[in-house]
Amino acid sequence: MNRYRVFNHTADLGVEIYGKTVEELFVNAAFAIGDLMTDLQNVEVTRARRIVAEGTDWEDLLVNYLREALYLFNGEGLLLGDYAIIEIDPRHVVGEARGEPFDPDRHRINTEIKAVTYHQALVRETETGWIGRVVFDV
Q1: pLDDT tens per residue, range 36-48
Q2: pLDDT given for residue 11 in this prediction
Q3: How many CB atoms lie within 10 A of CB 93?
Q4: DSSP H helical segments within the chain, as ranges?
Q5: For residue 40, what is the DSSP state?
Q6: To pair with 105 at 20 to 30 A between CA atoms, which of 1, 31, 57, 58?
Q7: What is the spatial distance between Cα 117 and Cα 87, in angstroms, rounded to a whole number?
């Protein structure tokens, strides 16, 4: 199973995410941010940060979780490529993200993601697992 796929969206970047479980869906969604931004093979796991988010439903929770993950790069300069979900329910998620500080001598930004939007946000359980959609402002 692919972790995610990019879909065409006018002026922004749409991503469809997959997971066998809702935990895996959230891990793969956060992974997509790092994977789209840089070559994750060049990111070492030297630091860990906790990500906590609240939401009114699965879609709101996913958007808020991804906003927190994106803040770790935009606000703290951390490139992240390894994620785990510690606890999750439709209104609350606690996760851990691991990576290292951005180093312009070692890391190249491929796609600058400015924000996570609610446009077309989706989280659904299917017969084969979970599927999600988000659109990133780039």
Answers
A1: 999 999 999 999 9
A2: 77
A3: 24
A4: 22-37, 58-74
A5: G
A6: 31
A7: 23
pTM: 0.95
Contact yes or no for 22/89 (Cβ under 8 A): no
Q: Residue 97's domain spans which residues?
A: 4-137
pLDDT of 24 reads 98
CATH assignment at residue 126: 3.55.10.10
- Number of domains composing the chain: 1
d(CA 37, CA 73): 10
55 by DSSP, 3-state: which?
coil
> CB atoms < 10 A from the CB of 115, how many?
14
pLDDT digits 0-9 by tens, 78-93: 999 999 999 999 999 9
Residue 49 CB partners (closer than 8 Å, separation 6+):
72, 76, 78, 80, 96, 97, 98
pLDDT at position 10: 80
